[in-house]
Amino acid sequence: MFVSNSKKQFQLVKDGFINLLFPEICLACETELSAREHHICYTCWESIHLTYFEGFKEPSSLDKLFWGRVNLEATYALFYFEKGKASQKLLHALKYQFKGNIGVYLGNFAATKLVNHPVFKEVQALIPVPLHSKKAFIRGYNQSEKIAQGIASVWKIPVIQQEVLKTKHTESQTRKDQFQRWDNVSSIFKVKGDLSNYQHVAIVDDVITTGSTLESMAKELKESNPSLLISIISLALAKSK
Ligand SMILES: [Zn+2]
């Protein structure tokens, strides 16, 4: 008892000391965080527009984005992506500044919003959108995998990583029109593993813009597993203009 208590106290003192030397700063505005804030300050968090899709009875704009393209059981995004705002800065930190933990943290948050969702609670495994190994090597991790880990820790389901492989190193999507984008992502995924143990999986992504990456991946999964049910979860959704 005494040992574990003093161990705990030592840990607290150590954490406090590290925090004093390297105070945690908000990933969006870079102000110092209080002890109760994690990764992002309350002010920045308040400025992020959540979608509230978890409570929607009617189809959401994200559901409609995939209509006529691929059959999905349910779709979800936690917040809207807004240029120059806190939402963009968080995703930027996750992708380019080695802040993988923000992905886990927000994945966790998204998962708690969907715990009682009638469709998402049937999901048996999570498949993060894979990164080409070259990109994963440069970044050190796959940001979608971090998000999936955060979701998985709440839902207590596995994250499947090896079954889907990205085969082509795609160029940046930003300077292409919609048709070129589709052309760019079609058939870049290969399913190599056996998914026959699962009836329903969810693909996990960081941000959805045109939806063509997810469309391509869902189609590839369905081609090799025709009876597989697929849902998608993303942290962010870019609002269509
Ligand atoms: Zn902030």
Topology:
Layout: H1 2-21, H2 42-47, H3 61-65, E1 75-81, H4 86-96, H5 100-113, E2 125-128, H6 133-139, H7 143-155, E3 164-166, H8 178-185, E4 189-191, E5 200-208, H9 212-224, E6 229-238
Parallel strand pairs: 1-6, 2-5, 5-6
Antiparallel strand pairs: 3-4
Helix pairs in contact: 4-5, 5-7
The structure holds zinc ion.
Describe the structure in your own words.
The chain is an alpha/beta fold. It has 2 domains: 35 residues, no CATH class; 190 residues, 3-Layer(aba) Sandwich (Rossmann fold), CATH 3.40.50. It has 9 helices and 6 strands. Helix 4 packs across helix 5. The longest helix has 20 residues. It is globular. The model has no long low-confidence stretch (mean pLDDT 86). Zinc ion binds next to helix 2.
Low-confidence stretches: none
**Could you say what the CATH architecture of the largest domain is?**
3-Layer(aba) Sandwich
Rg calculated over all Cα atoms:
19 Å
Bound molecules: zinc ion
Give the CA-CA distance, first to last residue.
Answer: 60 Å
Structural class: alpha/beta
CATH topology of the largest domain: Rossmann fold
Main sheet: which strands, in order across? 1-6-5-2
What's the CATH class label of the largest domain?
Alpha Beta
Please count the beta strands (DSSP E, at least 2 residues each). Answer: 6
What's the SSE pattern? HHHEHHEHHEHEEHE
Number of helices: 9
- Give the % helix: 40-55%
